[in-house]
Design a protein that fits this description.
- This protein is an alpha+beta fold and about 150 residues long.
- The chain is built from four helices and five strands, in the order ααββααβββ.
- The chain has a five-stranded mixed β-sheet.
Length: about 150
């Protein structure tokens, strides 16, 4: 009897998951959310809605190779929150593209830093606004010079 209840529970979970995925697929067809990928996460939907209501901003992180990564953060985000959002952006992109699954972010932040208008974003606690960063501004991802 217990095994039968577990089987029903697993089936119910699978059904719920299928319904959730179908609802997300319909939600992404909305004109507001049409830029999102098909395997969208709830976090990405929340970020897109926050952007639309002016509660968040997009910071473009530019790498040396010319690649630009649009990263969404709340309006009063700190440098640390931008770093975490960048990490999440890269992890989601890698998972979708099937690339390298693990990066050492400790190594990355020891080797690279973010700059805006030639100024290093050195203080993780400092707000992006304090550096003058606004919506759609570009922040550069630059390799640190050896001492």
């Amino acid at each position: 009897m217990a095994m039968m209840a577990e089987a029903e529970e697993e089936l119910a979970h699978a059904e719920v998951l299928e319904l959730f995925q179908a609802a997300l697929a319909r939600l992404v067809q909305d004109p507001l959310l049409c830029d999102l990928p098909p395997q969208v996460t709830a976090e990405e939907i929340g970020s897109q809605v926050a952007l639309e209501y002016g509660q968040a901003m997009t910071v473009r992180v530019c790498k040396a190779d010319g690649e630009t990564m649009p990263v969404v953060v709340v309006q009063n985000a700190s440098v640390l929150e931008l770093k975490k959002a960048l990490r999440r952006h890269v992890q989601l992109r890698q998972a979708r593209q099937g690339g390298v699954q693990h990066l050492s972010w400790k190594y990355i932040w020891r080797t690279y830093h973010l700059t805006y208008a030639g100024e290093k974003l050195a203080d993780d606690r400092k707000k992006l606004r304090e550096y003058g960063i606004r919506n759609r501004d570009e922040v550069n991802f630059i390799k640190k010079l050896r001492k």
